[in-house]
């Protein structure tokens, strides 16, 4: 089976997908229609053309944080947020994704509170529990938050976790890596961890070995990106040794890193160093809407660029299940992927 057929057909798990960054062009247009019908003013059509950051775009990582505002304008009401969640879930399902951990930052808008934001996404995922794709929510804390705001999000997440233990699995730190410092978020994250939530951190998306080391020593359950950890990519021997010692699984976002210029090109992506060092890696999309990609496309790129054979790619898909936050789903997802592997002689 060639990769164009294998990658979409193979059951896959998505563990790093920001809701508002995942909105496809068709979802954005549907949200516009929905908002117009419900009398909510949002974003002009002209802005929608600026939403995607493709190959060769002059915008870099810092610029991309402006782009999310376009999506945020479209998901300010419970109705539009629920619609965005449902459509995104279905797109991942159509791409062969059998389990997803969507992540999103609760926002207070003129139309809903932060609590309503988390409740809306949680209710929507719960109401889609009958779909073949299984889904969970990771609540995001943005690095541009004050300590007080971060504590409020953490407490809110813990409270909502009691209400939606079947949906909410974790908390994460994301946002512009050039803003804020990790140590300020440690108390909020620790509180969430003590309440039973899993932790994932955007780590080393830009060069900051001191912070990378603090993050790794915090022992999160997973990290996102991990670009600047190996000494060849702006990390130090100490950061690399810490990752190797702790074996923290890394959510890999190839196209995101290339399009934001965190990585020079696919060929020089740090996936190779992590894979060769046997660090657990999970292929993810990050923001499939903004970076015009899909989970199967990321698997295909990975195979093409790093010369993986179909059995090696299938092994990546099946190993990824070990790092899923919802323990109760692991067995059935693993079976689904292994059945596919056996049936196709991979
Ligand atoms: C760091 C990112 C990101 O939460 O509104 N986000 N944070 N690095 C990245 N690499 C490109 N991509 C997305 O989804 C959008 C938010 O996710 C975070 C940013 O905080 C962005 O505003 P939600 O659903």
Automatic annotation (TrEMBL):
Residues 11-337 form the Adenosine deaminase domain. It catalyses: N(6)-methyl-AMP + H2O + H(+) = IMP + methylamine. Pfam families: A_deaminase (PF00962). Its cofactor is Zn(2+). GO terms for biological process: adenosine catabolic process; inosine biosynthetic process; nucleotide metabolic process. Keywords: Hydrolase, Metal-binding, Nucleotide metabolism, Zinc. It comes from the Eukaryota. One of its GO terms (molecular function) is metal ion binding. Belongs to the metallo-dependent hydrolases superfamily. Adenosine and AMP deaminases family. This is Adenosine deaminase domain-containing protein.
């Amino acid at each position: 089976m060639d990769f164009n057929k294998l990658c979409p057909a193979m059951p896959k798990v998505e563990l790093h997908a920001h809701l508002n960054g995942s909105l496809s062009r068709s979802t954005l247009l549907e949200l516009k229609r929905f908002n117009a019908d419900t009398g909510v003013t949002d974003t002009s059509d002209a802005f929608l053309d600026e939403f995607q950051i493709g190959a060769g775009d002059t915008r870099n990582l810092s610029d991309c944080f402006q782009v999310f505002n376009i999506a945020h304008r479209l998901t300010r009401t419970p109705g539009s947020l629920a619609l965005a969640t449902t459509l995104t879930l279905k797109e991942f399902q159509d791409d062969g994704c059998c389990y997803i951990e969507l992540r999103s930052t609760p926002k207070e808008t003129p139309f809903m509170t932060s609590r309503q934001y988390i409740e809306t996404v949680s209710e929507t995922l719960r109401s889609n529990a009958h779909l073949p794709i299984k889904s969970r929510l990771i609540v995001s804390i943005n690095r541009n938050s004050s300590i007080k705001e971060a504590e409020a999000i953490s407490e809110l997440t813990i409270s909502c976790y009691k209400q939606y233990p079947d949906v909410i699995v974790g908390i994460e730190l994301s946002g512009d890596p050039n803003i804020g410092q990790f140590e300020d978020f440690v108390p909020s994250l620790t509180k969430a961890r003590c309440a039973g939530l899993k932790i994932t951190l955007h780590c080393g998306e830009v060069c900051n070995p001191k912070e990378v080391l603090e993050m790794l020593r915090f022992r999160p359950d997973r990290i996102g990106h991990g670009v600047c950890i190996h000494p060849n990519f702006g990390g130090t021997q100490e950061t690399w040794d810490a990752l190797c010692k702790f074996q923290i699984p890394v959510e890999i976002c190839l196209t995101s890193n290339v399009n934001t210029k965190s990585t020079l090109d696919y060929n020089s992506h740090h996936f190779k160093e992590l894979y060769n060092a046997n660090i657990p890696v999970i292929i993810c999309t990050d923001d499939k809407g903004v970076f015009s990609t899909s989970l199967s496309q990321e698997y295909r790129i990975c195979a093409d660029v790093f010369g993986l054979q179909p059995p090696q790619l299938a092994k990546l898909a099946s190993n990824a299940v070990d790092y899923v936050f919802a323990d109760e789903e692991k067995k059935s997802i693993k079976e689904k992927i292994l059945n596919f592997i056996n049936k196709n002689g991979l």
